[in-house]
Protein: Electron transporter SenC
Amino acid sequence: MRAAAVGDRRSDGLHGISPVTPTPKPALNLTGTDGLPFDLRARTAGLVTLLYFGYTHCPDVCPATTADLAQAMGELDPAVRARIRVVFVSVDPARDTPAVLVAWLHHFDPGFGFYGLTGPFAEVRAAARALDVDVEQPRTGADGVIEQNQNAEVLAFGRDGRLALRYPPGTQITDYIHDLPVLADQGATR
Structure:
């Protein structure tokens, strides 16, 4: 089955893009904002999980996407929101310490269950690549500015722990508001 192109209509009415393969949620064991180990699969078992690889020093896409997710979560019924977790995985672990992540996420998440994770870049990149998400090691440009490129997709894992939908950069808040209750109500996404 091919992935739907951006703008393709899905027969089930959902707005995200169907993954080519419903890959399982990665076995990421990183450090949470509290400085303690965080097992992604264990801590999000049975919940819709929106996984996003980004970095706090990102000038545009990461804060815009995180703000959109926070706004969408704020529009959901609290019972629906309780079945969803947003997980921001840093691709810049040298600068994104747990303290930096908690301060940054605090600007977006007024208690909706956002998690921030950091850990060894090689481990983060391996998990991202397994999900067809391209991330690069941060590098310092000739002007001394640290540059980084990353795929800005939000990956939605259903309550069954499998990749259900991919949301490209620029996804409308209304698309999340529509799709998340549907995913939260499904015992399994497939």
In short: The chain has one domain: 29-185.
